[in-house]
Design brief:
Distance between the termini of chain A: 42 Å
Helix content of chain B: 10-25%
Shape of chain A: globular
Strand content of chain A: over 45%
Largest sheet of chain A: 22 strands, antiparallel, barrel
Oligomer: heterodimer
Number of strands of chain A: 43
Structural class of chain B: alpha+beta
Number of helices of chain A: 6
Structural class of chain A: mainly beta
Distance between the termini of chain B: 82 Å
Number of domains of chain A: 2
CATH class of the largest domain in chain A: Mainly Beta
Radius of gyration of chain A: 25 Å
Chain lengths: 748, 205
């Protein structure tokens, strides 16, 4: 296994070098220097990112807010300056030979959620205006303010996204799949985080405390990200150390309130919620270091739903030379939880079925080690080679013991990924991004798969290329494709899977951009979906090696515009989308003729919809407003009925009321009920048809003690579902009831 | 480089000073009113508090006592290799039923205990035990035409052939003539059953 891993790294490194025959040329160079200041206070902004667009040059502001970019080839550049909490700016500069170009740049504070700069759309840093698809972000400030500790919690606040238990739904892409497979690719700093057995996403394995931001691409993204990006891509980007050392400590404690109804009161005392995270990051000379770790515990809002977990993450970067940087990421997370499946009945919604073994717990251990090498070959060519291995291990055990239960749910699986990517500026207006990837999945121990199939491995290899061209001022065209091949041992090899994409964005005015895109996605069935023989509740899931790839295409037209209203800046983003899916793999529940659960290629579906988002301030910045609405029409083309486990309406709104050092926020989320579910499941899950529209209201109050008392502390009271609205995110599972926590963050 | 690149991502200007104190008060009031309005909308939309436990009515159920006579078979029959793995009572809407598994999964029969789990069983190797079957409100029945005690003899829980009928509810005492129960909602219906291992009933499937 280790040998395979290093072979992949070697292959990728060789490919990277082969892709780049262009040798650095001796060109006259100059220097860019300057200072970055807050437009209101004129104070230095520390740790902001400056990146030369379409070139491999970038830096961060130092502890005095100053920046230097030396040895820049002479010419004219566009510099993109971004910093969390500020509106990004783009500045044009001219570098003259043997001279220093000096700049003083002001950034304006921005309390609302913005996504001015994105990475995931085209695997490089870009201004969002140049990206032809819908993208949303959740930044570290929103993560902190909402007390978000898991990726799924972060995604619940993204317009057009909702969770169906373990499934990320981007514009209705996913249904209910018993925790196997994901129709949205999840990445940590570009490394895939899909489990080697089930292809699913372990949400606690993506450390939110270490996240700079979470980017969500809406729509098929297989042209760059391959299998899994059927409905979208989620990329968690970790913090980047700067020269200023930073120690960050965050702790929270609170409780769920008791259920509204006596029938649901399963205990007399308030269930505890708490946790703490500690992090350190700094760049010293050529070495940069990010270390974080955390521990969390919740007693749950239902009986038999207690969860304890801990995690660590380290990211070490080293500048081998001005042209070459190496990054190494190690992440480990462990979670132990009660093995809750669904409720006993609506009458006893906080209790598991009477036959449940209340001593049974589920432990999952996730470990990821990855490395990338970034190299600048010339002024116009740079590349990255990355490789990583992701190990997942889960098993059930009886409380008080550590031994796995015999013949129960358990698996140890590996997913090895490697990629070599090259980005070349072919001309001033044309950028080529190309690369190759390989993904190798295997299971080393698992009573969940048919034993005769335990030796099955899954290999996916690909080549991809994409060209971005700017033929006219304001117009960006993107065209590309990816070609994948999949081989699962014991099965015949798939044919070549082509995933083309096309996109265009056009700046009608400096503040208005229109966009359109078309992309194809696919998802290869995971080893578990094909070979698993496991238990869901009291039912057996039977293997189905004959599963075919899921396919999708998505298209979108959209407009983003900034305008002045009531004397303040507002931003409107509107889009219409049309997604088609074929061969969707869904569990087929027991019927009168087939008393087993089996994954089958059942569904052909169409989801059309519109999405509108608006952000802005009331006059004098007294109140910030974010609002979005997504209307969808998910149709099962086989039955002409509404697609199962999909909602038609999503609404999200947030109000921000800053009052000096205080900030109040209120959020309202609406999610329409699932119109359709599997009728057969009503026989399995009592009251599975108990579903309602969800109205969730969160509220929080934050005090900046640095302004109030001169200590670097942010203190918050955070209430979730404060109206204690009772709803289900997935059938037979009462969603979290009201919780209130006190959170303290200390930044040194 | 294109001139478009000179455009800032969003207009970025210093804080305007055009708003006077009166305007600030006016706008704050406006913001307060808007927040209040939105809060009211949220509260009104969520005021029904969503799901709630169903009203506490007596369940519609069939219950009774099972009396075992004739001696239990051995834990594992040395000839047939059958085992006494699980004892259930099933109530079928139709007679003759198709089979116990298919009818339960199709909603045409009701099982006890309610959980479909191998771990759940009525008491085995006893002289008598009680049982009850809930007829769920979302899948009601007007008549139950066949109530039977079933024994799981092989571990393949969802395979119909793994089940044997060992006792039948009858109003006449003749196990070949199953009794019919007319179901009244929210009412307990008694149905006592005798299992005679020496005189098993006819297998209906």
């Amino acid at each position: 296994m280790v040998r395979i891993f290093f072979q992949l790294v070697l292959i990728c490194s060789i490919l990277l070098w082969c892709f780049s025959p262009i040798i650095a040329q001796n060109q006259p160079t100059g220097t860019l220097a300057g200072v970055l200041l807050d437009s209101a206070s004129n104070q230095a902004i520390v740790g902001a990112t400056l990146r030369i667009e379409d070139h491999p040059y970038g830096t961060y502001t130092n502890t005095q807010g100053r920046f230097f970019l030396r040895s820049l080839p002479a010419g004219q550049y566009s510099v993109l300056i971004s910093m969390l909490g500020y509106t990004a700016r783009r500045v044009a500069v001219r570098i003259t030979p043997r001279d220093t170009t000096r700049l003083t740049i002001h950034l304006r504070e921005q309390l609302l959620q913005t996504n001015d700069v994105v990475v995931a759309a085209n695997k490089r840093v870009q201004a969002v205006q140049d990206v032809p698809i819908s993208i949303a972000t959740v930044d570290q400030r929103a993560i902190q303010q909402r007390n978000i500790t898991r990726l799924d919690d972060a995604l619940r606040y993204v317009p057009g996204v909702y969770m169906a238990r373990d499934q990320i739904n981007v514009r209705g892409s996913s249904g209910f799949s018993l925790g196997l497979g994901s129709r949205v690719a999840a990445l940590l700093d570009g490394f895939s985080m899909a489990a080697g057995d089930g292809g699913d996403v372990k949400f606690d394995a993506l450390p939110m405390f270490a996240a700079e931001r979470v980017e969500v691409i809406k729509g098929a993204g297989s042209a760059l990200y391959g299998s899994g990006a059927l409905g979208g891509v989620v990329n968690v980007i970790t913090k980047q150390p700067t020269e200023q050392a930073e120690i960050l400590f965050r702790a929270y404690a609170g409780a769920h309130t008791l259920p509204t109804y006596n029938e649901w009161r399963w205990r007399e005392t308030l269930p505890f919620i708490g946790g703490a995270d500690l992090g350190f990051m700094q760049k010293v000379g050529k070495l940069s270091l990010l270390l974080t770790g955390g521990i969390k515990k919740t007693e749950g809002h239902q009986a038999y739903l207690a969860v304890e977990n801990w995690n660590i993450l380290s990211k070490i970067g080293y500048e081998v030379s001005p042209q070459t940087t190496i990054n190494m990421v190690f992440q480990h997370a462990e979670e132990t939880r009660d093995n809750w499946t669904f409720w006993q009945s609506l009458r006893f919604a906080t209790q598991p079925p009477a036959s449940t073994n209340l001593n049974e717990r589920l432990r999952s251990i996730k470990t990821m080690a990855a490395s990338d090498i970034r190299h600048t070959f010339s002024n116009t060519v740079f590349g990255v080679a990355r490789a990583g291995i992701y190990r997942t291990n889960f098993f059930t055990f009886n409380r008080g013991t550590t031994d796995p239960l015999i013949n129960d749910i358990a698996s140890i699986a590996y997913s090895v990924n490697a990629e070599a990517q090259i980005t070349a500026l072919l001309s001033e207006v044309t950028v080529l991004t190309a690369g190759t990837t390989i993904n190798y999945n295997f299971i080393t121990r698992s009573p969940i798969v048919v034993q005769s199939s335990l030796n099955n491995t899954q290999t996916l290899g690909s080549l991809y290329a994409q060209v971005e061209h700017k033929p006219l001022a304001g117009l960006t065209l993107t065209v590309g494709s990816r070609f994948d091949a999949e081989q699962t041992t014991s099965l015949s090899q798939s044919g070549l899977i082509a995933s083309p994409k096309f996109g265009a964005s056009y700046a009608l005015t400096p503040t208005t951009t229109v966009r359109t895109s078309f992309g194809v996605g696919f998802r290869a069935p995971s080893l578990a979906e094909r070979f698993a023989a496991l238990r869901f509740g009291s039912f057996d899931i039977q293997p189905n090696p004959l599963l075919r790839n899921e396919r999708s295409w998505s298209s979108e037209v959209g407009i983003q515009t900034g305008f002045e209203f009531l004397g303040e800046e507002w931003k409107l983003d509107a889009s219409g989308f049309w997604n088609e899916f074929t061969d969707l793999i869904e569990p087929r529940f027991p019927t009168a003729t087939n008393p087993q659960i089996q994954f089958q290629n059942i569904t052909k579906a169409r989801i059309q919809g519109v999405e509108v988002g608006l952000t802005g301030w009331l006059p004098n910045r007294v109140l910030g407003i974010e609002a979005s609405a997504t209307l969808m029409n998910p149709i099962d083309l086989n039955t002409n009925a509404t697609l199962k486990y999909r909602t038609r309406y999503l609404v999200f709104s947030r109000l921000i009321l800053p009052i000096g050092a205080w900030q109040m926020q209120a959020e309202y989320r609406f999610q329409g009920r699932f119109d359709e579910i599997d009728n057969e499941i009503i026989q399995v899950i009592p009251n599975a048809d108990a579903r309602v529209n969800a109205h969730i209201v969160d509220a929080r109050l934050q005090a900046n003690l640095a302004q109030l008392a001169g200590v670097p502390v942010l203190a918050s009271i955070i209430g979730r579902n404060i109206l204690n609205y009772n709803y289900v995110e997935i059938i037979g599972n009462l969603a979290p009831t009201r919780s209130i926590v006190l959170q303290v963050e200390v930044k040194l | 480089m294109n001139s478009k690149l000179q455009n800032s991502l969003l207009p970025c200007s210093v804080e305007s000073d055009k708003f006077q104190k009166n305007a600030r008060v006016h706008h704050s009031f406006f913001a307060f009113m808007l927040v209040t309005l939105l809060a009211m909308v949220c509260l009104l939309s969520a005021c029904n508090s969503g799901l709630q436990p169903p009203a506490e009515l007596p369940p519609t159920q069939i219950a009774g006592t099972i009396r075992y006579v004739g001696g239990w078979p051995p834990t594992v029959n040395p000839i047939t290799r059958d085992s006494v793995l699980n004892i259930r009572v099933a109530a079928f809407r139709d007679f003759p039923p198709q089979n116990i598994v298919t009818d339960v999964l199709a909603g045409r029969a009701y099982f006890t205990p309610s959980a479909l789990s191998l771990d759940s069983s009525l008491a085995r190797f006893v002289d008598a035990s009680s049982y009850s079957i809930i007829i769920p409100d979302n899948n009601p029945a007007t008549e139950i035409r066949y109530v039977a005690v079933a024994m799981l003899v092989r571990s393949l829980f969802l395979v119909p052939a793994s089940w044997r009928i060992i006792g039948v509810y009858t109003a006449t005492g003749n196990q070949a003539q199953p009794g019919t129960i007319r179901i009244i909602p929210n009412t307990l219906h008694r149905a006592d059953i005798t299992v005679d291992f020496r005189n098993p009933p006819p297998q209906p499937f």
